[in-house]
What we know:
The protein is α+β, with helices and mostly antiparallel strands. Helices cover 16% and strands 40% of the residues. The chain has helices spanning 4-8, 55-72; strands at residues 20-24, 28-34, 80-90, 99-109, 113-122, 125-136.
Amino acid sequence: MENEIEKLIPHRFPFLFVDKIISADENEIIGIKSFDKSNDRMLTGSFPGFDFIPGMIIIESMAQCGGAGVKKAGLAEGFFGLVKMESVQFLKGATYNEEIKYIIKNIRVSNRIIKQTGIAYVQNEPIAEATWVCARIDKP
Length: 140
């Protein structure tokens, strides 16, 4: 069964890392994701014994959230792919079954390029920050 997020972005299990878009407009997108050990088993081998979600998965999740929010707000059409990470900073680890909240700011949005910056939070504490660019990819 297709959920709301699957209507917005092409990612599918086990590489779909957004649960819900809470709000989306031309300036800001807010979304959430909770990683679950039983559903996200492939990630558990990254930090055995610590239960940390790999940092780059959190960044991918943030970018997916940004893309889904852009689509939900009707700001761009087409298929976009992540092409550039301008800055990434990991501040703290996140563990399974914690809700991660993403607050993403749209820097530039067009039908060719999307540039965003975001912060991931667990319990209102920042755990990661990133700025990235996505470009429209036309299917052959």
